């Protein structure tokens, strides 16, 4: 079957990472996502990294599988058009994702007058209205002081916008749940998700807040060790790095066996009266374990380390550089089997993934370039609002809408 | 209304972060989640951080709002019990989340013989069956070489298990979508989600893979700078740190105004013939911007910096330490308003959050301690399987089930 959410018609008026990634996850499940793009595209359409022709590869990644209506959002007519797109249609319509701030024309109670069962997902920074982005909320939950080598004297930010991405998926889960509920009860829902709330509640789920409250938090920065169990990075003879983890007793047994440190470990266990098959014990003695294992890695070239770790069924990962994330033999881009090479006019040809969900019965959208800004303006206004052609031409000439492609059916000019 | 997913009855046979966080997100939306705990609890029930009495605060955080059935999963009778819990019940039953590896008694096709519309969410490491955990897949997608100060010579791991958490939310989104589809078509679904797939597809959504393929990736490690725009950390006179971001032209204008560098910036813009209101330009000139702004922060005490940044409407975040994540005046634990102090017998009293979703009409579960391992064994076998009391006693005496509390109704011994 086609994507299971193909009966959902979502208006996506969001920028940067959280909102667009929420809509992307839904589009990959088949939802019809209509981006509302301001004239010329929002600022994030020019965000780095860029292809040589100036196309934003970042924006392309997050905005694939969505259609685009290009509207002058500064005009009353443009805003009314968006409100009409939210008010129209049947069961699967009337759904908005937005991170727009302080836009009174998007007031939920006001929008509900035209569409009483509206579902609105409002992504924001903080509950008090103060702005926040991934990097500021990450600083506030304390992780940068726990990241990096133990002798660092400054906080170290993460590079993955994890809070944005988590907020996006919470938003998509909330949206599908709200639609499910609306189909049963007929009631819409306003759902506000603040980046700051997602960060601090997640820190609570992982035990950080309880640890601070109950123990005053004993956690220190400790480089690439894995807190609470055993995991460490090692350098190979030729200067490559691998991450090795022994989370379970079985992982640990395999690692000890491969590296031949069994006798020393047994002697240590006897003299210290501990059992290294317990993860807490491995964590406590992580420095001595690392010291014992380091020579094994330092004595071998990377290629041999890779082969032996695999053959020995050790849990490990290779430290790859992002520029190696192409179609190399053992890159996850190749081994996942999820990527399809896509030609994006102007930007070039590059691997684009299918959905990460491998299902027994669903088919997600086929990897393709994102819709250009305004590519679907005419189609959507005709489909959703049954707007007559003359009205489209009038709005286009007045500069309220833009972007109808001269080469596509439904062209306006 | 109660949680919108209160008609879902989910069997959660998962450990560590991804599976338990998936089930937690659903439980916070009202789903009835039944954890299957092996006798004495899985290894993650003893994971750090611990309360002084040995209770895992980590495990408590991820396993709240779930009921617990304690079963000897090594026995055929115990496995049959779990299979019965998956086969029983009406529309909202027949849903499994698991990260169990190589368990033939949990084979999807086999389970479907008793429950043809079963929904099974299978969380795994990699498509080829090789194990992977957050820290190994993170190494493989290249982020640790982009994290940390620009003069670092080694990879820097993240501390937040972001890939686990993202995988968990993808799983919860997939589950609700599968239930929605099943209610319409009657069809179940097998959904496999590999950590490695989530990581590499997310890297593609963010433009990393395209950048590598099209440009050979120009990204270098660059400390706490925000890639593609302007963001940097600054030290205050008294040695505290703040993260300051100018993502939009407005943020930039506010920052320039507050720090009084407007004239210098204008002169720079003229001489360089650039416009710093463009984020790409700010990114390109991040070092000179930081050099110009540093004295402002270095001249002021933290308390003054905080006040002036807030008054000046600058986008910023305070670098807090995790041990400051208690109920301090301006900690997000306090300011979010989401936390309730909960007494957890043995562990102590600490703040536990409500759901991060602020909704117009839903009520999530009230913060409370997690169910003890086996706390609901008798209740669930009676409710779900209508198991007679004699049978319960027999299974308990045979050691197949455990955990019925002697103080609760439905007690067995």
TrEMBL record, chains A, B:
Classification via Pfam families: CoA_transf_3 (PF02515)
Top-level taxon: Bacteria
TM spans (from-to): none
A Gene Ontology molecular function term of the record: CoA-transferase activity
Alphabetically ordered keywords of this record: Isomerase, Transferase
The keyword Isomerase belongs to this UniProt entry's keyword annotation: yes
InterPro entries for the chain: CoA-transferase_III_domain (IPR050483), CoA-Trfase_fam_III (IPR003673), CoA-Trfase_III_dom3_sf (IPR044855), CoA-Trfase_III_dom_1_sf (IPR023606)
Segments forming a coiled coil: none
Signal sequence residues: none
The protein's name: 2-methylfumaryl-CoA isomerase
């Amino acid at each position: 079957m086609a994507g299971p959410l193909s009966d959902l018609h979502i208006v996506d008026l969001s920028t940067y990472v959280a909102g667009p990634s929420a809509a992307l996850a839904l589009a990959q499940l088949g939802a019809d996502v209509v981006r509302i793009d301001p004239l010329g595209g929002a600022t994030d359409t020019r965000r780095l990294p860029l292809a040589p022709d100036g196309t934003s590869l970042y924006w392309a990644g997050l905005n694939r599988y969505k259609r685009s209506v290009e509207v002058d959002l500064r005009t009353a007519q443009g805003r009314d058009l968006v409100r009409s797109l939210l008010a129209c249609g049947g069961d699967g319509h009337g759904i908005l994702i937005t991170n727009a701030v302080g836009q009174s024309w998007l007031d939920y109670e006001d929008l509900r007058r035209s569409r009483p069962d509206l579902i609105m997902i409002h992504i924001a920074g903080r509950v008090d209205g103060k702005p926040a982005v991934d990097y500021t909320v990450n600083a506030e939950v304390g992780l940068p002081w726990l990241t990096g080598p133990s002798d660092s004297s400054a906080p170290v930010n993460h590079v993955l916008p994890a809070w944005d991405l988590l907020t996006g998926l919470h938003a998509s889960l909330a949206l599908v749940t709200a639609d499910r509920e609306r189909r049963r009860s007929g009631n819409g829902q306003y759902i506000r998700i603040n980046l700051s709330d997602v960060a601090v509640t997640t820190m609570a789920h992982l035990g950080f807040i309880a640890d601070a409250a109950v123990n005053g938090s004993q956690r220190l920065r400790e480089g690439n060790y894995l807190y609470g169990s055993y995991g460490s990075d090692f350098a190979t003879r030729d200067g490559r790095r691998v991450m090795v983890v022994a989370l379970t007793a079985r992982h640990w047994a395999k690692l000890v066996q491969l590296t031949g440190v069994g006798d020393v470990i047994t002697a240590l266990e006897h003299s210290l009266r501990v059992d290294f098959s317990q993860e807490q014990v491995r964590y406590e003695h992580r420095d001595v374990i690392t010291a014992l294992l380091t020579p094994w890695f330092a004595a071998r070239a990377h290629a041999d380390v890779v082969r032996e770790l695999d053959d020995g069924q050790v849990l490990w990962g290779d430290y790859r550089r992002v520029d190696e994330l192409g179609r190399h033999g053992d890159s996850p881009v190749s081994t996942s089997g999820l990527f399809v090479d896509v030609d994006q006019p102007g930007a070039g040809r590059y691997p684009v993934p299918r959905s990460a969900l491998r299902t027994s019965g669903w088919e997600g959208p086929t990897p393709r370039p994102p819709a250009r800004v305004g590519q679907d303006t005419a189609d959507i206004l005709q489909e959703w609002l049954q707007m007559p052609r003359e009205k489209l031409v009038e709005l286009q000439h007045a500069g309220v809408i833009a972007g109808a492609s001269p080469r596509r059916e439904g062209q306006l000019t």
